[in-house]
Queue: 3 jobs
Job 1
Amino acid sequence: MKRIITISLYGVLCLLFINSAFAQNVTVKGTVKDATTGETLIGVSIAVQGTQTGTQTGPDGTYTISAPANGNLAVSYIGYASQTVAVNGQNTVNISLKAQSNELQQVVVVGYGTQRKIDVTGSVASVKGEEISKQASVNPVGALQGKVAGVQITNNGSPGASPQITIRGLGTIYGATNVLYVVDGVWYDDISFVNPADVENISILKDASSTAIYGLRAANGVVLVTTKRGKKNSTKVDYNGYAGWQTVTNPVKMANATEYATIINELYALGGKSPLFSDPNSYGKGTDWYGQGLRDAFVTNHQVSVNGGGEKSTYNMSLGYLSQDGNVRGNNYERFTARIVNDIEPVKNLKFGFNIGGLYSKSKDIPGGIFHELYSAAPVVPVYYADGSYGDPNDFNLGSNPAFNPQVTLDYFNQKSQNYRFNGNVYGELKFLKNFTFKTSLGGDIGQAESRNYSPVYAATLTQRNTISVLGVNRTETRNWIVENTLSYSNKVQDHSFTVLLGQTAQRNKSYSLTARAQNVPYGSEGDLYLTLGDQDSRFISDGGGLTTSVSYFGRVNYSFKDRYLLNASLRADANSGFYGANLWAYLPSIGAGWVVSNESFMKDQELFNTLKIKGSWGKVGNANVPRNPTIQEVTQIPQYAAIFGVDQQLYTGANIASFVPPTIVIERGVGTDIGIEASMLNSRLTIEADYYNRNTNQAIFGIPILQSLGANVSRIVGNQAQFRNTGFEFSAGWRDKVGKDFSYSLSGNFSINNNKVAEVVTGLNPIYAGGNGITNGALATRTVLGRPIGEFYGYKVDGIFQTAEEVAQSLQTSAKPGDFKYVDTNGDGILDSRDRVALGNPNPKYFYGFNTSFNYKNFDLALDFQGVAGVSIYNANIAYRFGNENFTKDFYDNRWHGAGTSNTYPSADVGSTSNSAPNSFYVQSGAYFRVRNIQFGYTLPGNWLSKWKIQRIRLYANAQNPINIFSYKGFNPEVGGAPTEAGIDANVYPLYATYNFGVNVSF
């Protein structure tokens, strides 16, 4: 019995010793990373479960804590699922956290860094690379259409062309309108060199407080592009490719030969002439010139990438090839891209690397006015005669217009273009003293664009001939570099979190262009085209260029208290060599504040909101790309200034000032205010974001009228004397959910309203008249004036069609004739003149929207995207863009006036006359449209089918882009861009087309 008691006491003592040993604290160290990306996480809370002991990860994601050997660590971080991790006596415990599906908790790219979406006080939108890669767009920007509130994308149908992007409305007339693109830290004017498959993420900075950190280039918004980088301890090879075709949608139907001959006879009768065609019915349908000049075009795109790395180095390499035929016969664009990214971390806290990309593209171009020719060409003219010669409009006595056969234009237009581009950056990053990070970067963009045009000697028709060959070459070079240095400090002291950023930038942008031509250059082959082979006396050469340098200093503070109260403030000082004196430096501040209401104690028991934030911001930005002050006062000597004086009647030559040096021009300054709310609800399945903004362009450049009596050859000069204003509302919402284990889906939509107007002009109501593209008789179709939108359409208001001569005689338009437009005397003074012109429509869209969906069931996936605009007008200049016997659309033929009572809406065939072609409301049509932007259906092969071939993934898909387009506009395409005062005028727009393709994604 004693022995039993002794053994029992011994066992109890052993158990007590073991428990005591395990109860002793051990020092636990480790790193916390994102489970998906492998990136270290800063500020993660780590506590010993059941105690008050806790710590947070530092800037490098590491932590150190004292904990019982048998204890547990409670790990939590906003935006990630909480975890409990057992110590189990270990001294090293590395932790991987999985991100929660809450959009507001995700990390987004902002200027010079990243932030959690919940910490952003400005307006920043983010689109993932996987969303961009689902589009058949050759430019990453084109894939953004309909996906971001407040962002208007206007795609150009020409192969290889960059889309036009407008963020929160138009804010300048004479300055540059393009946004600033920042690709991996380097600044660009466009990103046509970026393969969409290389994009990891795109962030759009929309409000002034978000963009102010980029200073004088940020007035039109900033688009940040992050390309894919390597991942540690892995190797992955991806192939993405597709092939398909592009086909013109919503084609404009033109009058056939019989209809054309009929309406031309009417035109001759209205002019008191005998009929041109004796028997219109004898011509039948004739030539369909659009059918002759346009085609279904082949397009294919391929990209191969290798991604991986070890513990100390990661890499990503990609090669891409695109071949895109244009919808005009003979048009083709080819692009080759390459990108290499390498990040090296030889020792802890030191990192350096490079990101280098290259592009080579070549194209066979088309004549600039070919679409107007296809529209205007006479269908009675055959493409070829029976003997194989070209059909000649002169054989039909059509006069000087349309004295062209479009096939001749296409066949003898010989222009090729090439583009070389090399860009990227190298960087180094050092973390020191636990909370400091210093980064230095040197980036550059070296480009060369070349074009060669050759006009041979030929004789195709009476007027389409060339007796002297001409060779023209053009070369434009860009040599840009940027150096940036930043120092940041991040820390969290109890409930206070803050990051301080200081930075310095130096830039140089240099361009040089050379244009040369020579006559009588022989053409045996492409290798024979040298200017020196032409006539020496005919050789011509000119060049030009520009050089600007800038230096900047900037700083930013991000502060958060208890993850509830947010404050962001920045200041940037910019100096640009284009300005001088007191205007050399611009100081551009910003401030933003936010309140995370959902983190307040009074919100703990509510179950509706997962996160709720109210935010507001204000900031200043600049536009330095404005006209520079001329330094030379121009004087001219023309015969009108000569005079004869004295008895001897001697001729004396006079002189006069030809132009005036304008007032000192300074940068345009943008001032913006943004107020918004962001929320996630219902277990983060529903996200909502709404913003109201007021964006002003102060010191905007505007035309200043000058007296003609001063003798200058211009009627105005420009100066900083106006203010433009864009106000608007943006709303976006998303829903993401999973039903069962096999089906998941997401729905998202956005809606934007923007109002644009000229808010102030120092010289009052003096307007800027413009918009002459496609307008005959020297008329101008747009006006920009105080209180109205930029580039608003302006002209006469139509009130029907004159039916009889008696009606004309009783009107104010006594010089009119039956079939002409009847204009309204809008000011009621009993006189019809230019003072009766009124606003007719706005080319700046008021409403634009998008709706995007994604569905996944087992191995099947489906994505549907919709997009549209409303509250916008287009000026259809094609209708009256005529000087003789051009063709008419079938719509015009069917609805034209051709006798009393036949039409009170469409004029007679004499639509090109001076009075009828004057800008008026008939030509202004709605540019609203609704579009099925993209449909993609995919299937991923089961993994067990692929494992024996060591293939990770194969996904097959079919894609349709722009397959359905609904609009009332009578032209080819309601998507009409243009310069600020020329926007929305359709005189030669590339047709809208749909793209259908089949593709595959393979991962090894």
Job 2
Amino acid sequence: MAGASRILAVLGPTNTGKTHYAIERMLGYRTGIMGFPLRLLAREVYDKIVAIRGPSVVALVTGEERIVPPRAKYWICTVEAMPPGMGCDFLAIDEIQLCADPERGHVFTERLMNSRGTNETLFLGADTMRGPIKALVPEVEFLRRERMSELVYGGSKKISRMPPRTAIVGFSVDNVYAIAELLKRQKGGAAVVMGALSPRTRNAQVALYQNGEVDYLVATDAIGMGLNLDIDHVAFSATSKFDGQRMRPLAPNELAQIAGRAGRGMSHGSFGVTGDARPLEDEVAEAIMEHRFTPLKKLNWRSSQLQFGTVEALIRSLESVPENEVLVRAREADDLGALKFLSRDSSVISRTTNAQSVRLLWDVCRIPDFRGISHGEHAALIGSIFEYLHGGGVVPDDWLARQIKRIDRTDGDIDTLSKRLAFIRTWTYVSQRKNWLHDESHWRGVTRAVEDRLSDALHERLTQRFVDRRTSVLLRRLKQKEALLAEVNDKGEVTVEGEFVGRLDGFRFTPDKSAQGAEAKTLKSASLQALAPQFHLRADRFYNAPDTEIDFTEQGGLMWGDAAVGKLVAGADPLNPQVEVFVDDAAGADVAQKVERRLQHFISRKVQALFEPLINLQKDEELTGLARGFAFRLVEGLGLLPRHTVMQEVKDLDQEARGALRKHGIRFGQFTVFMPLLLKPAPTRLRLVLWSLANGVQEFPEAPPPGLVTVPAAKDAPQGYDTMSGYREAGERMIRIDMLERLADMLRAEDSRGGFEAKADMLSITGMTLEQFADLMQGLGYRAEKGERAKVKAAPEAPKEEAPAEVEAKSEEAEAKSEAAPAAEAEAKSEAAPAAEVEAKSEEAPATEPAPEATEEASAAQETSAADAAAPVETPAETPVETPVETPAEMEVFYTFAWGGRARQGGGNRGQRRGQGGAQGGASTQNADGAAGQDGQDRRGGKPRGQGRAGERSGGKPGGRPAGKPGGKKGGRPQQQGSKTYSARPPKKEKQIDPDNPFAAALMGLKQGD
């Protein structure tokens, strides 16, 4: 609008305050209008003016947004949306240098040539526009404004080394996203600003940056269009862009427009390159710093004198050539392309019969292609809208509702939401057009609500993808050198400044596994710094914790509740293990030492409590000579020694030495020398750990379940495992040591040479089936012959015949209880036998030797006992003959056991047997004190050593069995001759008297009385 108003061109580089100057000038008038290149910038200026004058007098008009109060005085618009013919006192066009833009330049050029305020007109832009403005507007005045701060070139830097408050510029969506992802991993995140974002999303993203939640901004060249942000450094990730037709390098003035965003007000700024961008040439960098650029010579132009007679006439007017040499015809824009496409549609041409319809078609063609899809699809949409509007119609509500409903969804990723936002912008634009809808205000509200929902969802997705709030907060606090506040809940979860950072397991911190690379380093650094006080508090609490809160695992770990705080390592000897603590270096040496002392105290007390009998044995200064040496061997064996490994040592011990050892609860069993108290589950569990440590076992074997008499033999277990676990391997199973000794006592009463069957008591104490018991016996060195016979009920006389043996057994058990000595209390719990009887049962009569050789003093009694024991076995065999058989007899399986001469040795390593002569390496051929006793005399009272030795079975030794004594048939019961008295246990009156036995005098009197 031409007139005598003042026309002023305010030119200069960025950060000169041009926009601020224009706002002040406009507010000095009653009315005014300002045009901006981006709706984002328009929204920013609108918010500023509203804050000054209030919303009732300020209007905002863009392609997709229209806020027009009834008493609007100041209009803030995008350049394309500026209402024509407004008689405002003041008019301003910002970024006027966009007249040279190949896509939108013709719009700015038209405003430059034809838009005026009645009192004042301002054109704001770069110095490069001085010549074209002077040529097109001769009456213009120029005002030069200098930059308020310095702008320097910083060269090339890696993204990981970018300083805080940096904006990194990319020229494609993919490039922007990739940079933001990298900044998230290395710097905690970045805000994202693109021209395609809605104002709501853009403002939310800018708020992240402006509020300091992130220190980095990734943007397109949209930030070069007047967006005022607190940026200290601008880095170009590329120096070329796609302009809609081809990739082209950015001109120095275009680079300067973007670089000038660095440094606001009096704060200096810098610019540079990063990523794959090549460093700027010195001439280009100097031109940007000094604001010297090649002046613009040509401006894009398209005729505003349009002919609406026909579609062809309209196209000709749009393609007319400018007459002024400063102007150049703009390339074909989207609206002209859509018009040409529809001009080939006969149905559209048939409706454009007058100027009004042609004008309507042109208005419809000017709907921007926000969706960015093909020209054909965009033209088809425009054609549908034109068909509805032709002839005074409107777009149907139901059709528009269906279009919007497909878009109104907030699920999906960033790209999906961005496309929906682009689609809704089309319908937002349609709702802004006058007379296109039945209820324009309703649909404006609907489309605005959908855009807001999509904008919020997009902001949320952008933040989730490109911002790690946790790392960002921690980095900021670390840089501020402030004390970080850490909290640890009862689950060990650690939060620092309210952000989850990992878990604290005992005194070791495990960062959140979702963090990677530089993010993980930052996370751990901040976490350990914040956890320093927590480590000390936790160490104090641990040091004062009771032993009940600490425990060891079967693999040697040391636990405080559910947290691993250390592990056991081998020490100087098995009973003195050392500890290795699990404490982070960041916790400090004081914490580590405190934890180590507490764990060492715990394990020392644990060993002292569970191995007290063994430690007392170790400290007994009264033990001398062979007894002390044997005690040392037992301590080395952690309270358990397979008898065959100490056969000679046991043989060499005299009765005094034995008595001294028995006072410590040591039992000289037939198979094992052991301390019964150490067979309990707790000592066994610790013993296996100590033994594994001392022997360098890689994977510690676990203790068998407590309370079981037999367990399956461990496959591939280390040699010696069965003994250390309190068991002896025999066949496919292992039997507990103390129960094996009880079984040995029962086996002594049987005819091991002639053969015998398993008694119910044998199966009962082992808890085995007959088949399992047979395998066990074979593991102990017996032969097991399987057979079948008719199953019959026991004869009524059978209990009467067995009664004497039961009475004798009960009487001996009573005698054993009455004679139990204090030194044998541990053995009395499992055996209920006095010390002297234990010697007779366990030491002098190995069960792997035939029964007549079982004891030294009772060979004759054993023979009588064997004969009596044979009678009940023979009686059932004859019963089927005497019982009438009316139906086929039910068959039963039975086993006959006889000594096989060789036992399968234990040790846990199946297949590696230490066969050192008969069972237990020869232990079955001797009693506990040797073949002839300590004084060289045969202590068995002249009785033969039994059926297990052929040379003695013939009675060849002095005092031996009378010659001619039948030895029994092979595989059957021995023939009985004469009247002899049999006993299930050796007579104690013939036992060598132990001087330490409190019943020694009584026993000596009984022996002399005979």
Job 3
Amino acid sequence: MKTDSFALRHIGPRETDLQHMLKTIGVDSIEQLVYETLPDDIRLKAPLALDPSMTEYEYSNHIAELGSKNKMFQTYIGLGYNQAIVPAVIQRNIFENPGWYTAYTPYQAEIAQGRLEAILNFQTMVVELTGMEIANASLLDEATAAAEAMALLFDVRTRDQKKNNSNKFFVSEEILPQTLSVLETRSTPIGIELVVGNHENFDFSTEFFGAILQYPGKYGQVNDYTSFIAKAAASEIKVAVAADILSLTKLTPPGEMGAAVVVGTTQRFGIPLGYGGPHAAYFATKEEFKRSMPGRIIGVTIDTNGNRALRMALQTREQHIKRDKATSNICTAQVLLSVMAGMYAVYHGPKGLQYIADKVHALAVTLANELEKQGLQQTNTAFFDTIVIKADAKKVRAIAEQNEVNFYYVDENTVSISLNETTSIADINKIAGIFASANGKQATNIETLSETNHFPEELNRTSSFLQHDVFNKFHSETAMMRYIKMLERKDLSLNHSMISLGSCTMKLNAASEMLPLSNALWNNIHPFAPLDQAQGYQEMLSKLEQQLNVITGFAGTTLQPNSGAQGEYAGLMVIRAYHQSRGDHHRNIALIPSSAHGTNPASAAMAGMKVIVTKTLENGNIDVDDLREKAILHKDNLSCLMVTYPSTHGVYESAIIEITQLIHENGGQVYMDGANMNAQVGLTNPATIGADVCHLNLHKTFAIPHGGGGPGVGPICVAKHLVPFLPSNPVIPTGGDNAITGISAAPWGSALVCLISYGYITMLGAEGLKESTERAILNANYLKEKLNGHYDTLYSGEMGRAAHEMILECRPFKQKGIEVTDIAKRLMDYGFHAPTVSFPVAGTLMVEPTESENLEELDRFCDAMIAIRKEIEAASIEDSNNVLKNSPHTLAMLTAETWDFPYSREQAAFPLDYIAENKFWPTVRRADDAYGDRNLVCSCAPIEAYMES
């Protein structure tokens, strides 16, 4: 056994298992299986041109050497990013714990109660600190959250505003530069006109529907917006506020000023800088706008027994319902990071947060006083943590960098300094010394901090916050550790059993890929640090872009999009820019097959495109005749085709080259959704099938963990003619010569977790990547054949094979009174998370085993599915009191004195022998979605607060 091979550790099936698996499938070799699965005309003719694979040990040394090229300066740049202390109890028990980072989005609430409670804590924290009524379960970053706020306010315009086409949106000049860039990107395609200016001079014209303010401003100025918001409300202009969450422990919250939406980032609540991400953004609004909120909301409900249960509320994956009518395409959130930020508030509590904020403010006031004693002017009339100094920026910078300190240099005479939780008295003495040296002065030694607030008394926060028990009882490490563990035990994650979600690719997130994320040389770099201080990052990101170019066959990559849906949007915006550069401003038709992900039409609408749906044949393939008819009909205005390959039905469509040629012949571009890239790597690629741009889900194919619903990364790879349009950033320039404005806040998006995909590709190499794809196809077809005769596979390729996933037909079971949801819930009793339920076809299960699962786990899953099939046969539509309808079965049910069910306790909880040695207990019975939506509670509250009258 080649013990130093990473592929050996990543890939599940052993060499000794292959003959058995191939015999079950009915082929003689992997090569024969691939031939029967993948159209031969799109096979790659040569291996991927990647560097030889590294062993895990070699990679560990390599990444340490790269990390040493990052310079660890003390950084006071600010602009929405602040160094934070990650409490060790949270780092060890959540950030580094596969029980938390390998969990999937909590669509199966009964086995996600721990994570749901952690997110509910986050929502409660956001609601109470902002003074708003409802918050979601996090967004991607502050800039995209601000764009979502703009879109929401546009969507909820009054009838008169819509009738009069009130389409102007005021943006305060105090807004963060990266936020303005994303607002520019998002506003233009949907017909919003941005007006940037000084909020004190705003005229509240009826042409405006909304406004956004920064609190405190980008360089730290604190303004009282109460009067502005009141005047706006009088003109029916709704106001969003982007607020620093730590400052809200001291300052009047925007909700108390009358804001309609409050957004921001929770990065400074114990989340590493990570060169830009991932960080959990927050989004809070009024109850009246809940149906227009983007992303997910966690709500409180009851289970079958009337006990408290949590679940995702309001069908918040709204793009799958509204599709091209959706106002947002949000699919991934930053759940792992929101869990950490919420736990930061739990660990510190309200008094701890106030202590931290008081200290940060006192440091800023003390430093300002010292610099003014040196004769320097501090220009902010009110501030929380950021001061602005008039000084010779060039001279200050030279001395600061000699002392390994970064400030933000606004212009040649202005320096901005943002202090943070990690700053000490010694640090502000060092800063004072830098300015004294630059000005030929002598700094005095600071020994104590000022206790004077440097903002108006009327902005002092007077309202209480975080009074719920959860924020006031886990302040010792022992208590906190046990609380985190208690929640972890309620969740089924990849460290317990296979999660066979179709299209979501829940593969191994290898420890060797994850370890560098905890290293300060990687996780403590500011995204706007000078490039020469981030050479390790620059080399890694550049190499990852090259690797993705090779894998996709394309010429250029941007890593900026920080979710798959953001990648879709970025790809479409690049296509839009390409057409406009050629004078084809009228090309706005997007052809989208009816089987596409719901995010596809939502993204197209956000990019200002008109969606034309094309038909799908009974075998699941694109109806080429219908596509041809519509492509020709709309050839003068055709922008693009959005296609997923292999299809969302788990099939490699043999007509794909004909399809892409057809689009090109009619003036369009081909966008390929990379959700199923796990079935392409090393065997074919988007360039070979004729695509022009694809997005990749690094949290699927390339091993970034799902983290309970995020982080995700969704880079786009593009053909040569689209490279000039890749997105830029206003602070650190990126992208092409004709770059579109920002897609997300940070120049390289969620750069920290890109280390995972870099490690995955580097340690597998060309051969390992190809082998992974082959084993993914092997595992899927093995499951297909093992389940044959028990479950029908809805779609197969021309030779009867599945790609890396398949759809199991469950609709006929309705004759027995059994819905697909019953199967999903019953699988919990067998220790498994359900496959994807009712997507892309209602009443079906979409199964993807991934290459990481070994033969024993595949067989256990098949045994469970076959046992459930027998239970279905025993069920009847007349009698719903059966083991499927009553699933999942909790420990409380099994240990109750009474047992009123027509089957044994053993059949309920231990239907197969293997379960006993590793039993997972759902902690609630089925969550009542309808009840929870009728009685919407999305923050911590006692049961009495939401009981029906």
